[in-house]
C-alpha cells in the first residue's frame, strides 16, 4: 500500500515521503480501514517538525483524523462490522495519510450520513474541540458574544458554526480579505481583518464597551495578551492552543481585577477521563450536522500525491477551512 512517511524531522514538504509500506494488521480493539478522507491538522505539521507533545517513533505516517471504511477487525471490536463508514482518530504510527490506516474502537464513531467523506473526516478534532471548549469549559450561553481568533482556519471555522448554533453573537478575527470572506460565509456576525483593524477596539465598539463574554483562542502569544483588554466582566478566555508559536504567561492580577476566567482546554484528555462525554459530543455534532447547523468547510480536496504540499501550506498559515486528502481524487503518483 502507498502511504506518506516521515523518517526524519523537519518541514513537512521536505521530510514526508510517499512510499510503499506493509498493510497493517489490527491488534485487539483495533480496526483497519480503507481511508476515504483525512484532513491536515496543525499537529500533523508539528509532529513532522518534532515540536508536538506526541512524538511518534520514526518512521511514522501522519494523519491524526480520518473517515474510513472498515475492512478488517481485530479481537474485541464488538459494535463494528466490515463495511462500516466511520470517523475518528488515526493510530500512529499509521495515520490517515495512506491507503489504509489503523483506528482504535475507543476513538472511532459512525460517520454522519449527512456529510460527505471529506466533511465527515473534518468533524472530529476541530468540532469536538469546539464543542467541549464552548459548552463544557466556557458554558457559552445564547445571547452572549463569542470572539473567535483564526476564524477562517479549521479550528476557528468550527467555533464560528458551533457558536452560532448555540445562539451566540460571533465576532471572527482573520488575517486578510480572502479569509474575511470565508468567516462571513461561515456565519460570523462581525468579521475583523487584523491586518487592517485593531480587534480590541472593534470588540469594544460592537459590545458597547462591555467586551466579549467568551474568547476562543487557538493562537496564543500576543493574541491572548490583547484579548485580555476586551474580555467582559465574568468573561472566559479559552486557551485552545498556540498556533502563533509563542506560549504566553497569564497576568493573574489582571484576571483578578477584571474578574474574568482563564480556561484551559486539552480536548484529548476527555478520551481518557470521560469517554461517555465524547460519545455524547459526537451524537450532538451528528445532530447539528443532520440539521444543517454545522458543515465543515473543505477548501481543498487533495489526491494522495499532493498531501505533503497541503500539510506544508497549513504549516505556513496560508490555508482557509480544511485541506483534506480525499481518496476519490486518487492515490497513485
From TrEMBL:
Transmembrane segments: none
Pfam family, one: ADH_N
Record-annotated Enoyl reductase (ER) domain positions: 14-325
Entry-linked PANTHER family: QUINONE OXIDOREDUCTASE-LIKE PROTEIN 2, SHORT-CHAIN DEHYDROGENASE/REDUCTASE
UniProt lineage: Bacteria, Bacillati, Actinomycetota, Actinomycetes, Propionibacteriales
GO molecular function: oxidoreductase activity; zinc ion binding
Organism domain of life: Bacteria
Protein name per Swiss-Prot or TrEMBL: Alcohol dehydrogenase
Amino acid at each position: 500500500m502507498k502511504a506518506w512517511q516521515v523518517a526524519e524531522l523537519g518541514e513537512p514538504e521536505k521530510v514526508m515521503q510517499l512510499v510503499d509500506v506493509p498493510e497493517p494488521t489490527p491488534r485487539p480493539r483495533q480496526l483497519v480501514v480503507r481511508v476515504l478522507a483525512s484532513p491536515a491538522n496543525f499537529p500533523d505539521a508539528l509532529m513532522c517538525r518534532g515540536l508536538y507533545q506526541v512524538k511518534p517513533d520514526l518512521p511514522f505516517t501522519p494523519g491524526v483524523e480520518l473517515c474510513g471504511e472498515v475492512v478488517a477487525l481485530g479481537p474485541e471490536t464488538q459494535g463494528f462490522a466490515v463495511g462500516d463508514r466511520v470517523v475518528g482518530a488515526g493510530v500512529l504510527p499509521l495515520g490517515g495519510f495512506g491507503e489504509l490506516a489503523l483506528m482504535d474502537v475507543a476513538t472511532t464513531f459512525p460517520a454522519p450520513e449527512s456529510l460527505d467523506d471529506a466533511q465527515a473526516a473534518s468533524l472530529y478534532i476541530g468540532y469536538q474541540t469546539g464543542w467541549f471548549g464552548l459548552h463544557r469549559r466556557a458554558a457559552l450561553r445564547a445571547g452572549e458574544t463569542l470572539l473567535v481568533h483564526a476564524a477562517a482556519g479549521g479550528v476557528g471555522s468550527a467555533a464560528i458554526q458551533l457558536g452560532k448554533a448555540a445562539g451566540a453573537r460571533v465576532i471572527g478575527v482573520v488575517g486578510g480579505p480572502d479569509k474575511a470572506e470565508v468567516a462571513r460565509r461561515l456565519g460570523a456576525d462581525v468579521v475583523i481583518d487584523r491586518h487592517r483593524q485593531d480587534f480590541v477596539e472593534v470588540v469594544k465598539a460592537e459590545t458597547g464597551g462591555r467586551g466579549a463574554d467568551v474568547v476562543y483562542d487557538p493562537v496564543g502569544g500576543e493574541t491572548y495578551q490583547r484579548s485580555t483588554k476586551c474580555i467582559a466582566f465574568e468573561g472566559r478566555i479559552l486557551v485552545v492552543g498556540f498556533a502563533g508559536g509563542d506560549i504566553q504567561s497569564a497576568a493573574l492580577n489582571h484576571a483578578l481585577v477584571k474578574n474574568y476566567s482563564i480556561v484551559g482546554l486539552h480536548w484529548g484528555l476527555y478520551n481518557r477521563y470521560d469517554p461517555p462525554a465524547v460519545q455524547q459530543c459526537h451524537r450532538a455534532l451528528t445532530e447539528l450536522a443532520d440539521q444543517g447547523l454545522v458543515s465543515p468547510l473543505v477548501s481543498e480536496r487533495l489526491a494522495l500525491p499532493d498531501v505533503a504540499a497541503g500539510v506544508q501550506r497549513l504549516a505556513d498559515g496560508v490555508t482557509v477551512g480544511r485541506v483534506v486528502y480525499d481518496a476519490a481524487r486518487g492515490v497513485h503518483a
